[in-house]
C-alpha cells in the first residue's frame, strides 16, 4: 500500500494537516506512527484505512479487508455488544455460521462474554475499546490500523495487542499503529514513521537486530547453570551482579522473576518504567548494565 503525494485539510481554506506525504508499506510489515498530540497521526491512519479521502494525491494498493480501530470507540449506538458484533460480521461479508464463529472467538478471547447483552453506551471506555478491537478482527484483515489501541485496556488486553499484530503479520497482513504510551516497544522490528509540521518522515533503520533487555533473579547456587543455559539458547549475558541488600520482608520471593526495562522508541518519548523487583535472599541477579549502580541490569537477547 502506498500514499502518493497525499495532502489533506479539513476545510477548503483551512490549514494543511498533511502535505506531500509519500510513504509505502508492504505485506508482513508493521509501522509505528509517532508524533506529538495534534500533529496529524490520526489523520494519517484514517487516510490509510480509507476513513478519509485525500484532498490531493491518492492511496493505492490498499488491501480489500481493512480492520480499523479508532482511538475512541463510538459507543453511543443503540446495540448490545452481541448484536453490534453480529451486525459488523455481516457488514464484513461473513456468512451466518462463519460470522457466529468469529463473534464467539473474539468475545471469548477479549473477555467480553459477560457483556454480550449489555448496551454499548453502558460500557466502560476500556470495555468499549475491546469491542472496537473485536469488530476490526472479525474478518482477518489484510490491513489492520490501530489508533492508540492500548488506551483504556486492562493488562491482559494490552498484552493481547502485540499477539494480534504478530498474527496479522504472519498471515501476510500489514499493520499501522500509533501510540503515545511507549507500548510499541512490544513490537520489535517495526518501522517508525514520524509526523511533524504536516510532513511524514521515516526513521532510518538501525541496522542492528532488535533486542530486549531483561533482568533475571536466580538462586545463588544456580547462577553458573543459569548462565550456561542462557548462552546455550543464544542470549548474551553481559554481567552477573551480587545484590547485598535484601528486599523488604513483606515482598514475595520467587525462584525466578522477569522485568523488561524497555527504553524509549525513537520519537516516542520516554515510556513508563516497569517494576524491577529486588532479588530475594540468597539470589544473585544476572545483569549487564554498564555505568555502575542504579543502571538497569541486563540480559540482551
Short characterization:
This protein has 301 residues and is an alpha/beta fold.
Report on this model:
- There is one protein chain.
- This protein is an alpha/beta fold and 301 residues long.
- The chain has helices spanning 41-49, 81-91, 96-109, 125-137, 155-170, 223-232; strands at residues 2-8, 18-24, 30-34, 56-60, 66-69, 143-147, 174-178, 191-196, 199-202, 213-219, 236-237, 239-240, 257-259, 283-287, 299-300.
- It has two domains: 2-202, P-loop containing nucleotide triphosphate hydrolases (Rossmann fold); 213-300, no CATH class.
- Helix 2 packs across helix 3 (96-109) and helix 3 (96-109) packs antiparallel against helix 4 (125-137).
- A six-stranded mixed sheet has the order 5-6-7-3-8-9, with helices on both faces. Strands 10, 11, 12, 13, 14 and 15 form a six-stranded antiparallel sheet that branches. A three-stranded antiparallel sheet has the order 2-1-4, with helices on one face.
Task: Summarize the helices and strands and which ones pair or pack.
Blueprint: E1 2-8, E2 18-24, E3 30-34, H1 41-49, E4 56-60, E5 66-69, H2 81-91, H3 96-109, H4 125-137, E6 143-147, H5 155-170, E7 174-178, E8 191-196, E9 199-202, E10 213-219, H6 223-232, E11 236-237, E12 239-240, E13 257-259, E14 283-287, E15 299-300
Parallel strand pairs: 3-7, 3-8, 5-6, 6-7
Antiparallel strand pairs: 1-2, 1-4, 8-9, 10-13, 10-14, 10-15, 11-15, 12-14
